[in-house]
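Structure in, sequence out. Go:
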């Protein structure tokens, strides 16, 4: 529709739409809606015996937003906060609202600390991670890496230039530190 000084044509009526489009408006009548029984408040039909669900016992302190009075009735306990990254995340939840940028930046910082710790633990273990085979770099080389990026509307094209640095950076940093410490250990 073009906006002009004249009044636009009135929209089609329900009858005109129903005549033109097969099946239009089938759910206008509440009796025909498949979800209508669910839309009615009938606690007797569900078997619910409570106004508010029974709460899961809090065995340990959990992070929750300062906007909320209490935790939801059921919450996850699979990954409890721990270490420095947990302290950063706990601080974000205790101090800042979820509407605050600082809250989310602290959560991202906690993630980065956690991933750095995982890389360090991997390096000192007997079986460190293999960045070549586990990051998909070989698949990039084998599957038309240049042709798949030229004249494509891919969201990851903007950060492609920094990806090798992000993936290989921590490994190169550790290798550089190890090489710089090597002459000192030989002198001793």
């Amino acid at each position: 529709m073009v906006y002009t000084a004249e009044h636009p044509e009135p929209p089609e009526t329900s009858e005109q739409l129903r005549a033109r489009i097969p099946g239009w408006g089938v759910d206008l009548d509440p009796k025909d809606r498949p979800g209508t029984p669910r839309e009615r408040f009938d606690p007797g039909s569900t078997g619910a015996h409570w106004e508010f669900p029974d709460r899961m016992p809090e065995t340990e302190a959990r992070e929750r937003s300062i906007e909320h009075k209490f935790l939801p009735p059921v919450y996850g306990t699979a990954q409890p906060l721990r270490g420095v990254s947990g302290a950063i995340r706990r601080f974000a939840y205790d101090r800042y609202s979820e509407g605050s940028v600082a809250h989310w930046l602290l959560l991202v910082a906690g993630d980065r600390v956690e991933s750095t710790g995982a890389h360090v633990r991997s390096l000192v273990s007997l079986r460190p991670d293999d960045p070549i085979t586990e990051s998909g770099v070989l698949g990039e080389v084998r599957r038309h890496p240049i042709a798949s990026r030229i004249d494509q509307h891919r969201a990851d094209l903007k950060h492609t230039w920094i990806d090798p640095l992000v993936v290989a950076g921590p490994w190169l940093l550790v290798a550089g530190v190890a090489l710089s410490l090597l002459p000192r250990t030989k002198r001793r």
